[in-house]
Design goal:
By secondary structure, this protein is mainly alpha-helical. The protein is built from eight helices and four strands.
Length: 225
């Protein structure tokens, strides 16, 4: 059974949590990462045509479980969403600085795939949409959050830029994986979870371009930055 088949079976309820974790570890996924995937996909996860992927509420606070590991403690849902927005903003600023510093030909001259600039531009658009989605939540976030004042200095080379961006996306993936299970508001939890899935894909793409392992290491230890 492939990872995708395991996930599909788990989210349908055909496979219990322990079976899901055992299946992932048998496929070579580390135990900590398998437990994190169990948090992200269920067993309290459900999918329906009307609502899409939903992760049901868990108790607020720190919860220890032999399969789940330890959940972070948030003072409020607003705090979690604001952390997610801040990290998305840092990532967006770094990406914008790199795209301003390097042209499509700079990436190809560095031996990177011809579609590198287009892929990064797509990720830039996705990050903007994700920040909009979080700002649109019915939470008391005050003024629209996300994005940090002074943009970072431009990296010296395309490879250096991709390495920095890969590290930041890894940090962002880790933060989202930690935040999502701790949120009580269903819409906020679903939104952060879905963004986490998208960002993990972005992280894999950038890590591949940077010549690194495309499997997000952040799932091994979800944590706030």
């Amino acid at each position: 059974m492939t990872k995708r088949e395991l996930i599909d079976s788990y989210t349908r309820g055909d496979l219990d949590r322990r079976g899901f974790i055992r299946g992932l570890t048998a496929l070579g996924v580390g135990a900590a990462a398998a437990a994190t995937y169990a948090v992200q996909f269920g067993p309290s996860a459900a999918a329906s045509p009307s609502t899409g992927f939903v992760m049901n509420a868990r108790q607020q606070g720190t919860t220890t479980d032999e399969d789940y590991g330890t959940a972070i403690t948030l003072e409020s849902d607003e705090q979690g969403v604001e952390i997610a927005l801040a990290q998305l903003g840092v990532t967006a600023d770094l990406l914008a600085a790199g795209l301003d510093a390097f042209s499509a030909s700079d990436f190809t001259d560095a031996g990177l795939p011809a579609q590198t600039a287009d892929l990064l531009s797509t990720i830039q658009d996705q990050l903007a949409d994700q920040m909009d989605a979080l700002n649109a939540l019915d939470l008391d976030l005050g003024t629209a959050a996300g994005g940090a004042g002074t943009p970072p200095p431009p990296p010296a080379t395309p490879q250096e830029f991709l390495g920095q961006l890969s590290d930041q996306l890894d940090t962002l993936t880790s933060a989202l994986a930690a935040i999502a299970p701790a949120l009580e508001d269903g819409e906020a939890r679903q939104t952060v979870t879905n963004i986490g899935f998208s960002v993990s894909d972005q992280s894999a793409i950038v890590a591949f371009l940077a010549g690194e392992d495309p499997i997000p290491a952040a799932f091994e230890e979800p944590a706030l930055p």
